[in-house]
Every structure is written in structure tokens, then in C-alpha cells.
Amino acid sequence: MAASPLVYLPDSKLRLVSAPVERVDDEVKALVATMYETMYDAAGIGLAAIQIGVAKRVVTIDLAGKDEAPQPLTLINPEIVKASDERQVYDEGCLSIPDYYEEVERPARVTVRYLDETGAQKEIEADGLLAVCIQHEIDHLNGVLFIDHISRLKRDRVVKKFEKARAVGELPSFPRRDKRDRAAPETVEA
């Protein structure tokens, strides 16, 4: 499979609510393979299908560092069934909003029910980076971006910057921050 082009802010597709997958068939499996190829090509740790323009409730995640063996996790029709009251803050980024990072507060632990790539129903409990990544990607499936969790002023600035850049056919640049390693535990780029 080849990588697909990413959908970038301010594309209205990113605000769509994705439809549930009716059954895990060859088409869904091909979508999952394309998503992993795209995610790895972009050096991300998570990807929602809508980020490549497909409005289906499919997520791919791999938190392995660049020197570790891949640890792919496919979530089809994921649903958070329980979230902790305890909160955590992570510096989040997004492949659809490149090179922009902000601190986001989310529940520290979640329990998620989903179908895997074989169609089997599963449930996992996640904390730390995995919990953040899962919540970030499920937000995408619901038309929510990580910038929706920051102040309106910051959100309006970043959206405006992407709108201006789109008008001239390029992606915007942001002030340089510390170089981020794909495996850095305090940073989520999904």
C-alpha cells in the first residue's frame, strides 16, 4: 500500500463526524494498511481515517520509538466506556496541523471498547501516552481537533495562519520549538 495525502487544517473534512464501520472487510483492511503507511511515512504515532479524507471510524496507533519494533494498534469503532477523574497534561500536536503544539488536559486513564482488524470486539485500559493518543484520535472521529481544547484566542490564531497559508498553497510555519523525537513521552503528534 502507498501512503495517502494528509488532510490539513482548515479543510472542512476534519470537522466531519465519521460513520461507524458496518463490518470489517477487505476494503476496511486495505484502509488500515494505507493508514499505517501514511502514519509511518509522516512519523506520527496515531492517525484517524478522516485525516486521509475517509469518514469512517478507524484509528491506527503505534507508540514504538524509532529504534523499537513496531507495535501497531488498530481501533475500529472505538468508544470510550470509562474515563478517570484524574487529569493529565501532554504537549499535543497533529499531523493535520503540522509543526504546531500546545498543552492539552485530558483524563489520565480511559477504558476503550473497539473492534480489531479481524472484527473481534476488544476492550483495553490505557493510561499515559496511549490514553492521550486514543482520546486525540477518537476526537478526530467526532470532528474535534486538539486545538478545540485550548483557548479560543490561540485556536483562532492557528486557524487564521493555516487559512492564509492555504490561500498561497503552502503550509504555515511556527516558531521553532525543541526538536521532537517521535518517541518523546511528553509529546503526542497524532
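That was protein one. Protein two is written in the same sequence-then-structure order:
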Amino acid sequence: MSDAEDPVDERTTTSDLEAVLASLAYLLTRSQQHERQMARAGITAARSDIYLLRALAEAEGASRVTDLAHRLMVKSSHVTRQIDRLQGQRLVARTQDATDRRARQVELTAEGHAVLDRLKQANITGLAGALDGVPDPDVAATVSVLRHLIDRYVQRARATMHTEDGPPALPSQDC
């Protein structure tokens, strides 16, 4: 059989990556798996609340709701509802904005930091088991590629938000 007669394999490295990422996203966000990880860490927060806690931790201090919404690429009203839940669990606290009396800021409490640390440790333990036998340079290369992919997705998402909803609340920084 000549090359012209060979069936064309339409799979590309990009489609392979899409399939792998879809599988990984499914595995990492399955409800039962999430609940097991949360139980191991002693946490009752919802998955979306964890992303908010992480965003607050990465901000290294108090943040405005609009800044958090921009960072998470959601509406401010969604973040406000999350903050209400998390404040009820004493994981975050609202404080007065020093520069604008009308505005409030949000920051992690000591308990919020502790909860996030327990969750990260539970996640790291799970990942370490899954990565057993994978060489460190391969893991480092994967981290590098995934960070680049995330940066590009965020840039494109924010550009789309900018054209659909008007300008974003803040210039794109890091996510």
C-alpha cells in the first residue's frame, strides 16, 4: 500500500492534548473525588469556593470583590455570594477599604489559610502518588507547558470578555 492509500490519521498533538486535558479535568473535578479530597482535608467548602480561597491567598492580602471577580473571570455578584458563604464558615473576613469608605475588602482568615493549606497538602499527596515513577524533568516540562496554556487561555478569555462586556475591571496581570 502506498502512502497515498494509507488512511489519514487526523489526530494531532493538539487533539491528543485536548483529550488528555478533558480526562484530567473530569478526574480532578468528579464530585465523589472532590468530596473525598475535601473530607481528607477536613473542608466543607464547594469547589468554586476553593478557587476563590486560592485567589485570595495568591493576592497576599485583602482584595476587592471586583478584583476577585476579574481574576476568576466571573460576575461580582457570584463572588459576593461565595464570600457570604465563606464568611459564615469563618474562612474569610470583610474589612473596610482604607482608600474608599464605600468599598469593602476581603481577606483570608487564619482558619481560611489553614483550610487551604490542608487542601493543598491532600492534593499534593494525591498527585505524588499519581506521578510515582515520572521523572522530575518531565513533571517540570508539563508544568511549564500548562502554565503557558493557562496564560494564553486567560488572555483570550479576557479579550473576549472585553469585547462582549466592555473593558475588564483590571488590566490582565497573573492568574
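The first strand starts at residue 63 and ends at 64. Keep this in mind for the problem set.
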